[in-house]
Amino acid sequence: IVEPVAFAIAAPWVEGAPLDDLFTCVGSRLSPSFTISGLPEGTIAWGFSIIDQTADNAVHWAAANIAPETTAVEAGVVPAGAVQSLNRIDKVGYAAPCPKVGEPHTYILTAYALSQQLEVSEGQDSETMLTALEAGSLAIAATTFTVLR
């Protein structure tokens, strides 16, 4: 009997470790790379969010409706077919973390395996996007990182 692989997310940082400056306002402001694995049976699409848990759960990036065949997000690249919401600065796409100097912030990157394509559109407000991601999810995987300037 082959046991199914649990839905997981892998990123180029150790759980809870600092995010490379390349992905913050100190560096190139690139969106970070990560991969997912073990999408559960019945997954039609997937999505993700990056939220600042220290700053009132401010959304730095959220997207949905990514094909299950796409399991890697490359640095600085929006996954093909992704529908992105507005971020914390009311722009579509990734907002590089930039906490005040001396204030460490903790962020959570969450992936959502979705049972259907979500009824969301590009530039959707982030609250609606997050509600849809959570409501439509079959499984959730997450990892955290920190940023300190």
Verbal overview:
- The chain has one helix and eight strands.
- The protein has one helix at residues 126-135; strands at residues 8-10, 34-37, 45-52, 58-66, 72-73, 83-84, 105-114, 137-147.
- A five-stranded antiparallel beta sheet has the order 6-4-3-7-8, with helices on one face.
CATH topology: Phosphatidylethanolamine-binding Protein
Ranges where pLDDT stays below 50 over 5 or more residues in a row are none
Per CATH, which architecture? Alpha-Beta Complex
Distance between the termini: 49 Å
The backbone outline, from C-alpha atoms, is globular
Strand content: 25-35%
Secondary structure tally, helices:
1
- Overall mean confidence score, pLDDT: 96
| Largest beta-sheet details | 5 strands, antiparallel
Structural class: mainly beta
| Structural Rg | 15 Å
Percent helix: under 10%
